[in-house]
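User: Before I run my own analysis I want an independent prediction to cross-check against. Here's the chain; please return only the structure tokens and, at the end, one sentence I can use as a sanity check.
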Amino acid sequence: MKYAGLLVMPAGFFLSIAALVLFPASSAAARAAFVVCGLAVEALGLVVAARGQLEAQGKNRP
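Assistant: Structure tokens:
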């Protein structure tokens, strides 16, 4: 599961970069919304990776 989180984090990063590149500066609201969504995807990926790491450590304990 932690590998899925590690794969999702770059997707959020590229979503943010794509929003900055593809949306014109005149549509600042749409640009900001996509950047916030990209940051949220990155945060979700980080949470999934952290939870996967914690689960793996918990299984190794006696």
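Sanity check: The two ends are 22 Å apart (CA to CA).
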